[in-house]
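Question thread 4412

I'm putting together a teaching handout and wanted feedback from people who do this every day. The idea is simple: show students a protein as raw sequence, then show them the structure tokens that encode its fold, then repeat with a second protein so they can compare. Below is the first pair exactly as I plan to print it.
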Amino acid sequence: MRLLHTSDWHLGRSFHGVGMLDAQRSFIDQLVAFVRDEAVDVVLIAGDVYDRALPGVDVVGLLDDALVRLTGAGAQVVLTSGNHDSAIRLGFASRLLERGGVHLRTRLDELDQPVLLPLDPAGDTGPVLAIYGIPWLEPRLVAEQLGVGTASHFEVTRAATERIRADVQHRRVTRTVHSVVLAHTFASGGISSDSERDLSIGGVGAVPLDLFDGFDYTALGHLHGRQELSAAVRYSGSPLAYSFSEAKHKKGSWLVEVDAAGIGEVREVLWEPPRNLAVLRGKLEDLLESEDFAWAEGAYCQITLTDPARPAQAMDRLRTRFPDTLVLGFDPDGPGAGPKASYSSRLAEADDDLSVCCGFLEHVRGRAASDAESAVLAEALEAVRLEGASL
């Protein structure tokens, strides 16, 4: 049996104002083709299926299309909810969908209700794969239901995994059971990136890796970088980059082989990005002229200019070569880049209205007013003075 571990689809997300539905459709096309070509039996989605609790109609339609195509390609789907999803909305019609091979695990009362898949023809007595789903657990909301006194990520996750572990042990009394757990959480040892949002107010509540001891494989979601925390605990990462901090990620999934003896080979699967990301830094003229940056001309770009003074019309000029520049920053190099007096202190030293206006202009755009700009400002100030004198 083959399992494909995915997570963090974030359907409906945008990238610095650019809609990503087309890119997400491209990923789903690759996913369906891989499932068909590699005879994948089960696709796992470990949370954050949507990017919003209230996804748009077109976003819901995209998930609907993906589930129909995946089951049509011969795979069952097991998914759980993440902190971006509405567990109630995502879990709608779960009993009906189960008949079609789509298994939703979004409720606490389903923690110890696995999806059971036989691993040999022996029927009810042979080895079985039990797939459990831990939906995103908000400690303040679920602590009482899980019977814990402290509303922390550690305590509620421990209670959830103990409930699952008890069910596994009960089933092992009569047959061989291999267990797979989906969980959307921040397990200690993972490496975060900018596009993961905090799991709790004031910071991320990490849970220790040993909470997942004893399970044959734990398919984690939440962190967007694919990574192996242990042989049996892994993050698949997001299928697409959702921040420039992910520019160096190789997006993909894990293909997990399972047979009657348990978990076998686990190998990486890579997805082809629809657009590359480029994080560039340098002086404006170098960026516009050097062949070293030619590779980034078709990429989404985050650019930091290091010119001592902020160039005029920097974004417009950059977009003549890098049309998809989405983020522009300034970090001047050189003698003029040292600490400067605060805006308020410079304002206090201004001796006339023109100095105030020119100082403001320099403050907001990072370079002094030119002679022509100073002349326009002086003319405007004189017009205001004359109008006031005539009243």
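The second pair follows. I'd like the answer to focus on this one:
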Amino acid sequence: MSQTTKSPGDFLREELEARRWTQADLAKILDRPLPTINRILQGKHAVLPEMAIALGQAFGNEPQIWMQREYEYRLSLASLDTGDVRKRARLYELAPIKDMQRRGWIHKTDKIDGLETELKAFFGVESLDRDPTISASARKTDASNPFNAAQRAWAFRAKQLSQTLRVNEYSDAKLGVAIKKLRRLLGWPEQSRKVASILAECGIRFVVVEPLPHTRIDGVAFWLDSNSPVIAMSMRFDRIDNFWHVLGHEMSHIRHRDDPAVDADSVIDERPSSTGDEIEDRANREAAATWIDKSELESFIDGVGPLYSRDKINQFANSLRVHPGIIIGQLQGREELRFNAFRESLVKIRDTVTAEALTDGWGHEVGI
């Protein structure tokens, strides 16, 4: 709105001149103090509803006309810098500012230019006109939609951490060797601390980032370049079955070098048998088969189900040298067991994994 907008006083002056009335005449007609009329003419006094009605009666027009003139005039006087408002809104749409500042990912600043500089540095971009993108296949709750602001920030924090790691040169053959080594860890939760070093040996950077509020993401697989894969996990569900399933899922994306895409479905507190997405269904199938031979599991199901007991599950797990919680997780994923069955076997594993993996969150501070 231009500041040249006429005030109600300008219109009032035109009405007086057309009728050759003085301010005193109008004051008499309206039965209002002369100073009030004078202040309206100078634009120093607002036309309130009662005055709008009186002016409408005096000049034979509708009171709404006078209220509209008052509204347009006052709006034109507003000195708010709408450019800064738009820029600030863009930054807050792009990233969860307060949560990132709380985690120390960006510095606290009240200045919009400073905040913009912080976000450019965090995302590693020269402009924020477009949403920063990351080449990744992400396992998150609602993967049919693009990353939201919290998920994007989480993934970029994982990227920052991964760039500080030194690992061996990657090859698909080395990944196959790593999987064999990882399988030897499945029977003992405390052995999961070796995951990060085994992945580093095959050239995969592994990091753990505590999720931001409302992130709802379990893991992400991406490439720093054509030969530098990264797996990041949130471990928002602190359970042995969830950890190994998400890890296997992300390794599937690395193995197949999937195009950058957001996963179509993920774990909340269960694993659906089908996500409706071919790549994600494949990753889920391979995640399960990576740790437990499909034919052996199906043979156990045929021989025992649906009369599962703790002893039978433990015996089967011992024969495979796999923790019972991993067996239970897969049975639950196949809907062979209720999701509240044998929950005590789904032991916590986060503290063990993060003891040796590069971790941001849960008391682990990383200055980057």
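Top answer:
Good format. For the second protein you could add a caption like this: The radius of gyration is 33 Å. The longest helix spans residues 240-256.
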